[in-house]
Amino acid sequence: MSEFGKIDGISGTSTADLLKQKSKIEATGGEAFAQQLKSAISEVNELQVSGENTLADLATGQVKDLHQAALAIGKAETSMKLMLEIRNKALNAYKELGRTQL
Question: What is the domain count for the chain?
């Protein structure tokens, strides 16, 4: 069985645990969200740079393992698509909040 098929380590979460987590999140506020966003953008950027380098190596014939090159390019493409979808969802949510009447 693959590591993704195992669910033995999952345990239930009590309401008290959720309230503790909520208070921790509220204490850190927007700074934690901003840091997570910066980290995600940085990771996507690193994958894009890696993908571009792999494409350059592929064009010049310096690639030794074609499978690894294809994986690097695929990761870069997928991460960019995911980041764009997240951006689109965030913009749609922002627009929806703007249309909400109080």
Answer: 1
Return the amino acid letter for 27. A
Is residue 61 in some structural domain? yes
Distance CA 27, CA 97 (A): 24
Tokens 């030794």 — which residue? 64
- Report, as an integer, the average pLDDT of 7-24: 62
Q: What is d(CA 72, CA 46) in angstroms, rounded to the nearest whole number?
A: 11
Residue in this structure with the two tokens 């960019």, named with its chain if needed: 80
54, 63 Cβ separation under 8 angstroms: yes
Q: Among the residues of the chain, which ranges form H helices?
A: 15-60, 66-99
Residues in the chain: 102
d(CA 22, CA 12): 16
pTM confidence score: 0.62
In a domain, 68, yes or no: yes
Q: Is the pLDDT of residue 89 over 90?
A: yes
User: In which domain, by residue range, is 86 found?
Assistant: 30-99
Q: For residues 62-87, give the mean pLDDT.
A: 91
